[in-house]
Amino acid sequence: MQVTDVRIRKITKEGKMKAIVSITLDDEFVIHDIKIIEGEKGMFIAMPSRRAGDGEYRDIAHPINSDTREKVQKMILDKYEAILTEEPDGLENE
Questions:
Q1: Beta carbons of 50 and 18 less than 8 angstroms apart
Q2: For each of the chain's 94 residues, which pLDDT tens digit applies?
Q3: Within 10 Å of residue 19's Cβ, how many Cβ atoms?
Q4: Terminus-to-terminus CA distance in the chain, angstroms?
Q5: Residue 12 in contact with residue 94, Cβ under 8 Å?
Q6: What is the DSSP letter of 91?
Q7: CA-CA distance, 58 to 90, in Å (whole number)?
Q8: CB-CB contact of 73 with 37 (8 Å)
Q9: Beta carbons of 48 and 26 less than 8 angstroms apart
Q10: Which residues contact 90 (CB under 8 A, 6 or more apart)?
């Protein structure tokens, strides 16, 4: 599996969520609504989730092992940082 495209929409409101991301896998499958969040220990991604009947949030789509999660997170955060460095306004605003 290869991440073949990463699209980032910057969030302009104040808060911990910095951007919303869509990734394409193998030019065939898209995952929308991955969030880039600024936490106490740095930036991380949160996979798309939905509130269940018990009030808890559960991921809709997610990597099934930590190596894949780290690979996807690194790719997304590297692109986010590169875009901020190259062109601070290079992100789509939401």
A1: no
A2: 899 999 999 888 889 999 999 999 999 999 999 999 999 999 999 999 999 999 999 999 999 999 999 999 999 999 999 988 876 555 555 4
A3: 24
A4: 29
A5: yes
A6: S
A7: 31
A8: no
A9: no
A10: 83, 84
CA–CA distance, 72 with 5 (Å, rounded to integer)? 11
Distances (CA, A) of 30 to 5, 11, 26, 35, 89: 9, 20, 9, 14, 24
In the chain, the amino acid numbered 54 is D
Q: Residue type for 86, please?
A: E
What are the φ and ψ backbone dihedral angles of 19, each rounded to 5 degrees? -165, 160
Stated pTM of the model? 0.83
